[in-house]
Automatic annotation (TrEMBL):
Keywords for this protein: Sigma factor, Transcription, Transcription regulation
Family: Belongs to the sigma-70 factor family. ECF subfamily.
NCBIfam families in UniProt: PRK09047.1, sigma70-ECF
Record's protein name: RNA polymerase sigma factor
InterPro entries (alphabetical): RNA_pol_sigma-70-like (IPR039425), RNA_pol_sigma-70_dom (IPR014284), RNA_pol_sigma70_r2 (IPR007627), RNA_pol_sigma70_r4_t2 (IPR013249), RNA_pol_sigma_r2 (IPR013325), RNA_pol_sigma_r3/r4-like (IPR013324), WH-like_DNA-bd_sf (IPR036388)
Domain spans labelled RNA polymerase sigma-70 region: 45-95
GO BP terms, alphabetized: DNA-templated transcription initiation
A GO molecular function held by the record: DNA binding
Length: 204
């Protein structure tokens, strides 16, 4: 019995596309909040810019990596987001210094690598929490950090990436990640110590 050829390939592609779009919606729902906090801190509270950067990163992720697994999306998304943030920062730096296109723009004043640091475990953000401490206070403390320290801390502590993956996302060496992360932890402990005596500050 002859059967008409089945149009299995177009249907399969359509299903794959639909599945990818559904996965992206789920992925966006999961990471948007944390990504926005990271970008708002990095852009000094400019919510509109932060939202644009996050949305552009999602668009690029779907356009170039829709066929990747959800697990692969996490480092890919933050790599794209970091690149877009650095592009925005360069444009802002050049806008502030009109003739900076004649020289390399330095975005970070703390980008000095310490080679003698032991790789610290990724902290649980709850370790910074206390009944008297609000999420807003913690976010304000993070926002005071240099941008690369913010990124290292939030990628490691909030997202749980290891040092190697964080270095790939931030496009720097593992030693630099260790340095940024270590300095971020020290600065946050100092800033938040008066709120939480368990971080080493005085309870008085």
């Amino acid at each position: 019995m002859d059967l008409a050829p089945k149009k299995s390939q177009p249907e399969s592609l359509s299903t794959l596309k639909s599945t990818a779009e559904q996965r992206l919606k789920t992925f966006m729902h999961e990471v948007t909040g944390r990504a926005l906090v990271m970008m708002e801190s990095a852009t000094q509270g400019q919510h509109g810019i932060a939202m644009d950067l996050v949305q552009e990163a999602f668009i690029s992720l779907h356009k170039s990596y829709a066929d990747k697994s959800t697990d692969e999306w996490y480092p890919l998304f933050y790599t794209i987001l970091n690149n877009k943030l650095q592009d925005w920062r360069r444009k802002e730096a050049r806008r502030a210094q009109p003739f900076s296109f004649f020289r390399k723009v330095s975005l970070d004043d703390d980008d000095v690598e310490q080679n003698d640091l032991v790789d610290e475990r990724a902290l649980n953000p709850a370790e910074f929490l206390d009944q008297a401490m609000t999420a807003e206070e913690i976010q304000e403390a993070i926002a005071k950090l240099p941008v690369r320290q913010q990124q290292a801390f939030m990628l490691r502590a909030w997202e749980g990436f290891d040092t190697q993956t964080t270095a790939q996302i931030m496009n720097c060496s593992e030693g630099s990640v260790k340095t940024h992360y270590h300095r971020a932890i020290q600065a946050l402990r100092q800033t938040l110590a008066h709120m939480n005596p368990y971080l080493g500050g005085s309870s008085e």
